[in-house]
Design brief:
The complex is a heterodimer of chains A (68) and B (270). By secondary structure, chain A is mainly beta. Chain A contains one helix and five strands; from the N terminus they run E-E-H-E-E-E. Chain A has a single domain, classed as Beta-grasp domain (Ubiquitin-like (UB roll), Roll). Chain A has a five-stranded mixed sheet with strand order 2-1-5-3-4, with no helix packed on it. The longest helix of chain A is centred in the first third of the chain and has 7 residues. Chain A is globular and about 45 Å long. Chain B has an eight-stranded mixed sheet, with helices on both faces. In chain B, helix 4 packs parallel to helix 5. The longest helix of chain B is centred in the last third of the chain and has 20 residues. The radius of gyration of chain B is 18 Å and the shape is globular. The chains are: A mainly beta (68), B alpha/beta (270). Chains A and B meet through loops of A and strand 5, strand 6 and strand 8 of B. Bound molecules: zinc ion. The site of zinc ion has 8 residues of chain B, from helix 8.
């Protein structure tokens, strides 16, 4: 099936969970990433149980602490 | 207040814009903007805002200029090493534009002093380098109903978002609480390209100017991310449902400001 991850369309296997996608995408510091699916926040306790569907739009939002 | 001939010339590139005009330039001259952190982000933001004729600029930073700052903090010069950053920043801004009144806060912002510091300002820029300060600024601005620009930079990446009270998600809507100490690298540990502060800090100045003029669309409800290696900007839409947020939601559980523990590697903070 096809989904959009951080603005890029890609093919993933049917039934993939958000937790698996985080591994496949090599998300940096996955414990502290904020995930949105179709413009809704997903609690990180739901990563394992959330199965993605065709056409879903996933964004990973990262802490960025610098400034000085 | 009438413009002097010198002001008409100084601000001519603003005044000629239909979105600014004489009226907009007066708004800028009457505006009060606070910049927290006189570093990588705060330096270019402060310089552009001073040049633009923001009438009152507050600048808060507890640090002194260090030689390792000069790779990116362009408001400070080699001769300023050892001087309080707020003093060095004030000198640069005043030398650029005598119309600007600079107010310095040579101190750390804390839960004790932040509400008092921000209360007189129209817009706040978060130019800090650590999560305790970023969460403190967010919570204080939500509680005091002050608009602010959040930004962060690291390595070849940067991001920013604008918060306007009752209109857009806040920083805590996106990131619930600071990561544990050292869980997420800081600039000091990870490095940053100096021009990254220039890109993102200038965008913070741009949002400030737009807010004061009341023109265009602010970066509210979006997180703008910039990847310099790919030379890619992305405007990521944020969820609009903020009712569950611990500070700006319908039933806030955070009603008092919190001083989170500073990561040790940040050293001097702000
Ligand atoms: Zn919020």
């Amino acid at each position: 099936m096809n989904i959009t991850v951080a603005g890029v369309k890609k093919e993933v296997r049917d039934g993939i969970t958000v937790a698996q996608l985080i591994i496949d995408e090599k998300v940096e510091t996955p414990e502290y990433v904020t995930v949105t699916v179709n413009d809704e926040f997903l609690e990180n306790t739901q990563f394992e149980e959330t199965v993605l569907s065709e056409g879903d739009n996933i964004e990973f939002l990262y802490f960025m602490g610098g400034g000085q | 207040m009438a413009f002097t001939n010198e002001q008409i010339e100084r601000y001519s590139r603003h005044i000629i814009l239909k979105e600014v005009g004489a009226k907009g330039q007066k708004k800028l001259l009457n505006a009060k903007v606070l910049i927290i952190g006189a570093g990588g982000l705060g330096a270019p933001a402060a310089m552009y805002l001073a040049a633009a004729g923001i009438g009152t600029i507050g600048i808060a930073d507890a640090d002194e200029v260090d030689l390792s700052n000069l790779q990116r903090q362009i408001i400070h010069q080699t001769k300023d090493v050892g001087k309080p950053k707020v003093e060095s920043a004030r000198e640069t801004m005043e030398a650029m534009n005598p119309d600007v009144k600079v107010i310095t806060y040579h101190e750390f912002i804390t839960s004790e002093n932040i509400l008092d510091i921000i209360k007189d300002y129209d817009f706040i820029i978060d130019g800090t380098d650590n999560f305790p300060a970023k969460f403190l600024i967010n919570d204080a601005c939500v509680m005091a109903k002050k608009p602010f620009s959040h930004a962060g930079i690291i390595r070849f990446q940067g991001q920013l978002m604008t918060y306007v009270p009752d209109k857009s998600p806040c920083y805590r809507c996106v990131f619930k609480e600071p990561p544990p100490k050292d869980a997420v690298p800081t600039c000091k540990q990870a490095g940053v390209i100096g021009a990254m502060g220039g890109v993102i800090g200038s965008l913070q100045a741009m949002e400030t100017v737009k807010y004061i003029l009341g023109v265009g669309e602010l970066l509210t409800g979006y997180l703008l991310t910039y990847d310099a290696l790919k030379m890619q900007f992305r405007k990521v839409k944020l969820p609009s449902d903020t009712h569950k947020c611990a500070v700006c939601g319908n039933n806030p559980t955070i009603t008092k400001l919190i001083d989170y523990e500073q990561a040790e590697c940040d050293g001097v903070g702000l």
